[in-house]
Amino acid sequence: MPGPLDGIRILEFTEIIAGPFGGMLLSDMGADIIKIEPPWGEPWRFSQPFIPNESRTYISLNRGKRSLPVDLTKPKGLEIIYKLISDIDVVIINARPDVPYNLGIDYETLSAKSPRLIYCENTAFGRKGPDSSRPGYDIVIQAMSGLMASEGKIQDGVAQQIQSTAIADYATGITIAWSVCAALYHRERTGQGQKIEASLLGTALAVQGGRFLQVAVVDDEPRAEFLESLAQLRADGAPYEEVQDRYRQQSAWRRGNVYYRSYQAKDGIVTVGCLSDRLRKRMADVLGLHDIRFEPDYDPTSEESIAFAEQLVKKAEAVFIKKTVAEWLTLLDGAGVPAGPLRFVEEMVTDEQVIANDLVVELDHSLVGSVKMVGPIFSMSETPLEAKMASPALGEHSQEILEQLGYSSQEVEKLRDDGVIS
Length: 422
Description:
By secondary structure, the chain is α/β, with parallel strands linked by helices. It has three domains: 9-205 and 377-417, Rossmann fold; 214-250; 260-346, 2-Layer Sandwich (formyl-coa transferase, domain 3). It has 18 helices and 15 strands. Helix 1 crosses helix 8, helix 6 (138-145) packs across helix 9 (200-206) and helix 11 runs antiparallel to helix 12. The longest helix has 24 residues, at 167-190.
């Protein structure tokens, strides 16, 4: 059965993570995606390559696409794009706001040639405001959005990024795919194309919604006091550790966290996550611990309570170290306590749970052979998703795409010789 976006054609002007990831998600839904790269290839091909023009990062983000490297600074290159656009449903581009205009692939230009076009533009900071023209990558957005400071990691006196994943980039890729699907639905009902504007900054703030939220009656006064003291600390040149300590004082930093954390067991790490008193009581019972905070009318925010909790943590640590991870999981699962072992992502490729839910796919790459990767991240009963093919080698589909546009073999070869395509 065809996917939900079968028949939709997408033109990608994307690089690095957010745009390519968004496009790949749409490809899994059945969209036909042509990825436009510069003749030498997009930058992510050269991030720790293991053969020329191929890297793990590029392969992991560009599944299901066809590659057409075009020099958009050459008139003949732009002519190819204008020929393509009449049969394109969606354009995805991630760049500084000025780049599409400089290259002649901005929304106004392309929608004039194809009025039903859906044009999704992702920028670092959004198209308005004092930072709109600045370049920015995930690490910069982590710093400027509060993600990095909220993480609380310090090394050599400075804040450290979230290193496990480029969270703003990947979350924005999901935003791109989500918004394109919504726009396609709107077009189906009305016939109207439109422009979508996404940003790394907007996504980074959205995933911090609870911290961003300001309830006037509760937050206005303490937040104003914090911001005033923060400005003073910076003016005084205070070291970052001191600034972070001040942040922890006002942000309800969790001391004595017993029920939502990881513990060292006899042979590994076990993690528990109890977000209700009912679950916390179950965990305490499994560990044989008495928690006075379950008593009626007890103030969990008092200094007495916090001091008690810090001692309770030490008791829990002493209990967990006595059994293996498997033994603890048997006990915790039996009590209905959410828990799991700590693993590295490399272990998950052969994980029974992952395989059972079709979350790993194996594809054949034209240059490197077999690749295993994360498959479609959800399933649909009537319009199934499919990882159709591995990421393309640079220019792998140039001949095919251009001949479909009506170029002869001789014309394609001339474009190559002139450096218009590769």
